[in-house]
Amino acid sequence: MSSHKPTPQFELAGVNAMLVRMGNQMRSEMPTYLKQIRDLLLRDYGELITQVTPAYNTLLVEYDPRACRMYDLQQLLEKVLAEMPYEENASCRKLVEIPVCYAASYAPDLEQVARHCKLTTDEVIEIHRATDYQVYALGFAPGFAYLGELDKRLQVPRLDTPRQQVPAGAVAIAEQQTAVYPSQSPGGWNLIGFSPMQWFNWQEEPMTPVEVGDCVRFVKVSEAEMKSLEKQGMPRT
Amino acid sequence: MSREAITGFRVVKPGFFSLLQDAGRSGYEHLGVTSGGAMDEMAASWANRLLDNPAGSTLIEITAGGLELEARTQTMLSVTGGDLNLTINDEPQAPWRSFWVSTGDRLRFARPRIGFRAYLAVQGGFQVPASLGSAATVKRDALGGLHQDGSALREDDFIAAGFLPEEQLPRQLPERFMPDYTGPVTLNIIPGYQQNEFSKEAWRQVLKQPFELDTRSDRMGARLLGDAIASPDLAMFSEGISYASVQVPPDGQPIVMLNDRQTLGGYPKLGNILPLDCYALAQRQPGTEVRFAHIGLMTAQQQMRRYLRFFGL
């Protein structure tokens, strides 16, 4: 077992929830680890545990206060975590390729990002698509995947004034992360491209193309290719 | 099946914000799907209880009034929660009771007299297809409701409901069970383990000073206005947000995270409110005075266990 295995801290999160905190850093092996814990908890303790939400280095564990008390739950979680193997450099559960069009008309902030990073727009695109990203969390809105870790050369702050409306499909970056907006919503990230891919459909199985622990690779497509993909209906994987 | 063959209710006027709700969605938070559900779960539970419906049956949450329905069936209804001046065929009706309606009857909810949200249940529950296991309407997730797209009730919507061959005895909730929605509200808070990130001074302030329910409050969160609470400057990644947690963003104005809260957030949290107090808060109009008081986890859980067992939730 690795010496880097994080020591869990248990935080009270209400009458029916605990937050398990594992360190305070973004670590690439963490998403897979959290996903494994989630699967195990729901599989083996579904009577007690109602929901498990992983994000970065935490798990929100919701339970039925009639079925167990917080102290018993904490003991159970301590035991599960002690037995769970922790793999350094864990690989992605699966890799999903996402088509992205970086054409200027779909990338309103691309030039400003390039200026800020002292790169050409082509270099920004090249760096953005050359990295494989991990899904650290899904949330904010259905299917919104927080993807990390963005190359240091591309790290830019959020916009000073968030946009009232970011279109669904906008590919965005901010600080250490990148994401695709699954639905039209307000947003403060820098928009550098557009993907015709659908990120959430509750009537399909699976509902989202990726879950925490999966990896994403952006594949550059031309505007014409993007439009034809869009016309075919949004591809899933 | 033709529409005429189905019994139910036609929406004559949708009102300000009338939503089909139930106990909410569970099990999809890890994909970013929020729970939704009746904001005043206690009143909703009573509405179903008065009709012997299973707990969590689909009902209508009417916020601030304005809903007008026409019965296209005969059945028992119940109404609980805020008193929104309900009339049936222009005759005033008191809430917290069940009653009989027949085809052609008009139900009108006007502006609130007491409270903020009324719950209208029908015998057997409104028959609405479930989206991810629930009919709960969540606009921001485009999920649930009559059209399964998160939209509120609209003019001319038709909500299917059963037909009863004969009238049943009406029931009324004994007065001692009726919540009092008037006056200031106290939110009992269970301090979370991030409590130590806040200074002693900040905590003293939270428990001492009054706040005011802000007009920007919605189904996502109740925003409170008061002298700013010093929020610790934590470099946090987003983490799962539980129901009734109290976030304090850098502006120092607390937000109680409610049914339609975003699933992840990254602000420091004081702790969590006893859910029963959030139900009471959901009946308050903006401007209401809000105070915090401390409650221990054991006491809070005892109260919630009693509530959940009573309603079979």
UniProtKB/TrEMBL annotation, chain A:
Residue stretches making up the Carboxyltransferase domain: 8-210
GO molecular function: ATP binding; hydrolase activity
Highest taxon listed in the record's lineage: Bacteria
UniProt entry keywords in alphabetical sequence: ATP-binding, Hydrolase, Nucleotide-binding
Signal peptide: none
Pfam family, one: CT_C_D
NCBIfam families (alphabetical): 5-oxoprolinase subunit PxpB
Name of the protein in question: Allophanate hydrolase
Species for this entry: Aliidiomarina minuta
UniProtKB/TrEMBL annotation, chain B:
A Pfam entry, by short name: CT_A_B
Organism classification: Bacteria, Pseudomonadati, Pseudomonadota, Gammaproteobacteria, Alteromonadales
Record GO terms (molecular function): ATP binding; hydrolase activity
Transmembrane segments: none
Annotated source species: Aliidiomarina minuta
Protein name listed in UniProt: Allophanate hydrolase
Domain Carboxyltransferase: from-to ranges: 30-310
Coiled coil regions in record: none
Protein origin, superkingdom: Bacteria
InterPro entries: CT_A_B (IPR003778), Cyclophilin-like_dom_sf (IPR029000), PxpC (IPR052708)
Keywords: ATP-binding, Hydrolase, Nucleotide-binding
Gene3D superfamilies xref list: Cyclophilin-like
